[in-house]
Amino acid sequence: MSFLLLILVFIPLFNFISIWILEILCGKRVAIWTVAHSYIIIVILGIIGLKTVSSGAFQFFILGTWIKCGLFVVNWGFVFDTLSVSMLLMVGIISGAVHYYSIGYMENDPSLIRFIAYLSLFTFFMFILVTGDNFILLFLGWEGIGLCSYLLISFWNTRVQANKSALKALIINRVGDFGFLCGLILVFYFFRSVDFSVVFAIASFFSNSTICFLGFECFCLNLICFFLFLGSVGKSAQVGLHTWLPDAMEAPTPVSALIHAATLVTAGVFLIIRCSPLFEFASSVLFLILFMGGLTAFIAATIALTQDDIKKVIAYSTCSQLGYMVFICGISSYNVSLFHLINHAFFKALLFLGAGSVIHSMAGEQDMRKFGSLINLIPFTYGLMLIAFFALSGFPFLSGFYSKDLILELSFSKYNMGGIFVFWLGTLTAFLTAFYSFRVVYYTFWGKINSFKFYVQNSHELPTSMGFALSVLSFGSIFSGYLLKDPFVGIGSIFWGNSIFILENNSVGIDFEFIPLFIKNIPLLFSLVGIFLAVVWNTVLEQLKGILKLNWKSVWFKTETSKKLISNSLLIIELYRFLNHKWYFDFIYNYYLGYTMLRQGYHSFYILIDKGLIEIITSQGLTAVVWNLSRTLSHKQLGYIYNSACVLVISLMSLIIVILVF
């Protein structure tokens, strides 16, 4: 069975290599459809593999040795446990749907073969990341998906903004990658190995070991987990290093679905879950994870409220949901985090691909204020996106309902300050999520049409390949929570075996089953209120705009009521501006970091060192000295043989004296 799973891992790499050959031999159409159909094999093998490993028969496979240098030994080793195979199956389904969708979405693009090849390479590196049995292979997949994300974000490389967004994603992720690399080095320094089986087995013996870091005495596992979490902050777009995520929307829409639903942004969460035997002994870092995840969920949701680009709203929604996945890891419920990760992958991929269908039908327009009444033009897309938005909002019995409500219940059942804090923050985020979700639905499908006649009369429904991809994802968006609830998070389930480790002291147990019923229903109530307010705000109040217009100068301007109304309006406008500018994260980074560093680099390094020290002393000063000396010596050279012989004899005698003396 391990051999079949190994074939599954390398099928995308074979696709990447073979698609170029198939294009030459059989033509473009045969090549892309062959690659797309190969994902059916991947999904079938993934289902068989999940059924095998769920019984406890974990599979290990070593192809050979990659690096051997003293104690540092790295094998081409792969582990197939319930954690890795679950991720393999989820990534395979999403990636296959994206491939099918791309055939219809990008059919007129002259570089479609290159695009499909990049998608396959991206999938291969994600497979390496989730199945590697050591930190080096995980880091190989980690860097590989970073490289492929750069290639895919800048796929339309004639667009300046696409190139800028790709560079931004790459540079910001370097910060996280540096943290991951520091954690990897510390792992080898303490454990003398990078194999998961060795490191995780002896982690408990280092729970009280300390190291002096920057003059402070730190627990070694706290330090290691802090750097590993820094890597997760970059990849999974937690607050502080999240600014690359919305700008990555410059990529073609299928790339957005693959990056933001199943692969790149989930890599950081997967790293935390995979390293649960380390994080369980780093209580300080777990609290940091809890706090950062809660803040990310809330801040990203507030920003999504004021965005008008349909893809950016969904991107910030991804960032917010990643916050849920991270903060639940902070209370040691790693299985619940993975449960939400897989559920989220289905409905978020459906949202992105549905948004791509809307954009495709509206000739590339992404501003949802310019849509409206598309329910009559693309009803199939509307139905599927409505399912996805309901799942995102946590509507009962859809996939998001099972995992999101469970996350909030577990947070409350910790009965400590951190758990209560993230419970209420997550509940408020659920309200905001429902509000901005149905704001998108209103502007896109329900509101008054606000487009040019040319775009409306040429709008069209999905091609067959795109419709098939969305149908598969809609099935997952409806049923994944129900089907996976018992094995993934059911009480007494042994599905995960030893692929996830939770200390007995950190386990929530069954406390969440005994919290009051009204507490359990608060998140659902907030979500339903958010949906209701979004509908009311964008229908009833929009229709009353003309009635509520006031003649400030003639009637209200001099009254106290008018002054209060104006003052409150200004506060609302400032709040809107603050959220619309994304809490000014980009401004702070660009002005206080980017511009300041550029200015200091110019004055300190370029003017002082490059143009000053180096250029004057070497290229100008040394050159001038040599030039003047050579001119002086050239005047002393008269061309007589006896002068040259005299200089030669004197130089030789001086050399002999120096040798004899020293």
Overview of the structural elements:
- The chain has 26 helices and 4 strands.
- It is mainly alpha-helical and 662 residues long.
- The protein has 2 domains: 2-533, no CATH class; 585-661, no CATH class.
- Strand 1 (59-69) and strand 2 (72-80) form a beta hairpin.
- Helix 3 packs antiparallel against helix 10 (253-261).
- The radius of gyration is 30 Å and the shape is globular.
- Mean pLDDT is 86; it is low at 550-558.
The shape, in one word, is globular
Query: What is the number of beta strands?
Result: 4
As a whole number of angstroms, the C-alpha radius of gyration is 30 Å
Number of helical regions: 26
Mean of pLDDT: 86
SS-based class: mainly alpha
Order of helices and strands: HHEEHHHHHEEHHHHHHHHHHHHHHHHHHH
How many structural domains can be distinguished in the coordinates? 2
Distance between the termini: 75 Å
Name the assembly state.
single chain
User: pLDDT under 50 segments (min length 5)?
Assistant: 550-558
**What proportion strand?**
under 5%
What topology, given as strand order, has the largest sheet?
1-2
Please write out the topology.
Layout: H1 2-26, H2 28-53, E1 59-69, E2 72-80, H3 82-105, H4 112-131, H5 135-153, H6 160-191, H7 196-202, E3 210-213, E4 216-219, H8 220-235, H9 244-247, H10 253-261, H11 264-274, H12 276-279, H13 283-304, H14 310-329, H15 334-361, H16 379-392, H17 399-412, H18 417-446, H19 453-457, H20 464-489, H21 517-543, H22 545-548, H23 552-556, H24 560-580, H25 585-636, H26 641-661
Antiparallel strand pairs: 1-2, 3-4
Helix pairs in contact: 1-2, 1-4, 2-3, 2-4, 3-4, 3-10, 3-15, 3-20, 4-5, 5-6, 6-8, 8-11, 8-13, 10-15, 11-14, 11-15, 13-14, 13-18, 14-15, 14-18, 15-16, 15-17, 15-20, 16-18, 16-20, 17-18, 17-20, 17-21, 18-21
